[in-house]
């Protein structure tokens, strides 16, 4: 198969879809890899490294899309890429369709085969291609939250871990999945007073067993959230419903109950966000303030640490990419239920129920196209 790796052009996105190590493995399996010039530079991988790995460097994004049968990316295509996508072309990347209707309609119109990292799902309901970036984003949410709690950045002026004789910051984590667990670990490690909420009692029991003594667990519901937000300094939104829009757990009216300078970090923003007042921001302009509450809503948080993120992502995606390239997408998805669940839009049809429901579109069962 002919595989293309374009340069990411989303604002301040420095990751790349495949590392040179990944290129070597794809070529060993008999495939050709075409990488756009400078695609890996932001992650620390020069064109020379890709050439040594066996890839062919193409000068423009147009040539990469025109040449490739399968495109491996990191982030969803943006508007300037839509017309480059060909009918039947396989796109293997994060899409987060349910949070952005224009992208969904564009991919339907282009009749591409869109296999989304975020909905590839194992039998145990885990999301193997979302996990590495969720780990990065969860840990980063505390780094960024701690920074924006500083007074010059309009935060409360509180040190996350406190010092002897002064209490630490109170951190509230909404969601006990991969993002929430990593956020809680980082916050606890810095000495914060952490509370993590989830609706799954079994998960809360597990977290209660593994977390240090400065992490408390509570059942998540609106009453509990309203009770806790006035006393917390940093609130992390870490809720995920695979392939669907995240629910609003923090509503607009709750902001008035928060202390001035409270910081909200919505890691779920690329799935629509779990904080009603959040809207996607960029690393260039990451925050905004509503009712004296600082909102950090960067939609590609791991893009700020691309060297770590790109390697972590390729570690997870490469085995699936090899399956798709070796067998072709249709056979690979027929053979692997994990990959089949990754299909969202295929040849103009929406085949993932969460996406169809988000925009009231016609749903086509995926088995009918395999």
Automatic annotation (TrEMBL):
GO biological process, one term: L-alanine catabolic process
PROSITE patterns named in the record: ALADH_PNT_1 (PS00836), ALADH_PNT_2 (PS00837)
Gene Ontology cellular component list: plasma membrane
GO molecular function, one term: nucleotide binding
Catalyzed reaction equations: L-alanine + NAD(+) + H2O = pyruvate + NH4(+) + NADH + H(+)
Catalytic site: 96 (proton donor/acceptor), 270 (proton donor/acceptor)
Residues of the Alanine dehydrogenase/pyridine nucleotide transhydrogenase N-terminal domain: 4-137
Annotated Pfam families: AlaDh_PNT_C (PF01262), AlaDh_PNT_N (PF05222)
Every Alanine dehydrogenase/pyridine nucleotide transhydrogenase NAD(H)-binding domain range: 149-297
Domain of life: Bacteria
EC numbers: 1.4.1.1
Keywords tagged on the record: NAD, Nucleotide-binding, Oxidoreductase
Positions contributing to substrate binding: 15, 75
Keyword NAD: yes
Residues binding NAD(+), per UniProt: 134, 198, 203, 220, 239-240, 267-270, 298-301
Homology family: Belongs to the AlaDH/PNT family.
Classification via NCBIfam families: alaDH (TIGR00518)
PANTHER family cross-referenced by the UniProt entry: ALANINE DEHYDROGENASE (PTHR42795:SF1)
Protein name listed in UniProt: Alanine dehydrogenase
Originating species: Pontibacter arcticus
